[in-house]
Design brief:
mainly alpha, DNA polymerase, domain 1, 2 domains, 9 helices
Length: 200
Amino acid sequence: MDINQYGKTKTEAQVKKATLLEEAKGWTTYIDGDKVTVKDWLDKWLVTYAKPKVRQNTYESYESVARIHVIPHLGSQNLSKLQANQIQSMINNLTSTKSARVREYAFSVLRMSIRQAIREQLLKYDPTLAVSSPKKAKKELKPLSIDEWNGQGKPPKDVQYRLGHSSISMTLDTYTHHVPTRQNDIADWLETTIPSMVTS
């Protein structure tokens, strides 16, 4: 409805205007950035912005990391006054108690919510830009042995090429964990194969 509707009299127009204003209260929810806390905003961001855009399991992981790792550290802070050093303290605390994956995820969820708050003009700047981001979790790779390579149809020479090693000796020196066993297998094969080749 148009808020500029007029009645036949001034009183009627004022009544209609008051009615429209009352109805308009349900159209939008105004958020006062000076009064909302980080917890308040995270709760709203999760339901209003994150949940409609991501899968249910992703939303649940966002909600979990916010509730368990972000809110206990920053939840009571005033959103509009949130400082980089406060976020850094959270990261540092998580560094001493949680995995790199948890630290990275907690920081990511907080950063996404803050950037939405900036778009809504609840914050004037992004305090996460001044934070030393947590180091990303590194996956430790366990090298395969020669037996495992051959068992999977991956000859060492092919692996050498794939890894970019300059020589097969570099590959073998690095990854041959089961060479003694392999050598015994070769010796057994020679003992049974060579005599049969000679007699034939």
